[in-house]
Structures are given as structure tokens and as C-alpha cells.
Amino acid sequence: MAKVKDLFDAMPPDRRRKLTELAREVSLPRETRLFEEGRKADRFWIIRSGKVALDQHVPGRRAVVVETLGRDQLLGWSWLFPPYLWHLGAASTGPVEAVEFDATVVRALCESDPVLGRAVYRYVAETVADRLHHTRMRLLDLYGPQGSGLNT
Length: 152
Fold this sequence. Notes:
Layout: H1 13-20, E1 24-28, E2 33-35, E3 43-49, E4 52-56, E5 64-69, E6 74-75, E7 89-92, E8 96-102, H2 103-112, H3 114-143
Antiparallel strand pairs: 1-8, 2-7, 3-6, 3-8, 4-5, 4-7
């Protein structure tokens, strides 16, 4: 099965309209802090242009960038799973144009519309699985036997 390009592509056309009505276009300047690890996850974004760095707090050190997201990628999935707290932090690395969603409103829409809800949950699950796969490949490149990761 081909990977869905973005959240809107995951929706049946009639449901796509419902979701787009909730979208809010945002422009974020360089180095805008979008969220902090451990804080309430109350929104999410689809990046239209620019890049956002995801980072992890490391005690006694600066936060470490673990991934960089760009065009058409989902920024934030912690909003979908209780206790709705961010697992990472995020900041724009340059100007970013994105579509922002209120997580509470989207969760309520997912509950009231099972077809839309299934599409959203599936898209988020595929996104998380894809990122986990790429993380594993990067770890193999760093710590595994030569030729076992992405750089084969």
C-alpha cells in the first residue's frame, strides 16, 4: 500500500471538507518554539513549507535534535493519545507556513464521525510507524554492524 501524502489525502472527499473547515493557516518566524516536552498537547500542524526540528531534553545538556520535519508532514501526534502530553519539543528552523488544528475539536470530530476518525487514526499510526522505522535505521547506522542501516 502506498504511503498517504498528507492528512487531507487520507480523508474521503466528503470528510476532507469537515477537517479543512477546522484548519487555520499560520505563519511562524524562525526559531518559534511550538511546544515543549511534557507539556499539554492541545494542537497539531501540517507543515506546508519550511522545517521544524523535533528535540529531546537531555539532563545537564542542551536539547538534542532527533528529527527534522518539512513539507506535508504531520507535526505532533501526542494530541491524539492520553494523557495528551508532548513526547518531544519542537522549534522552527526558519520561516514555516503550516495548517494548525485544535486537538480537542478534532478529537471530538473523530469520535462523532467514525469514518473520519478511522482515517485520522490510521494516518497518525502510519506516520508514527514510518518515523519509528527511520529511527531504527539511524540507530543501526550508528551502532549496528557496518552496512546494516540506511547507508547501505
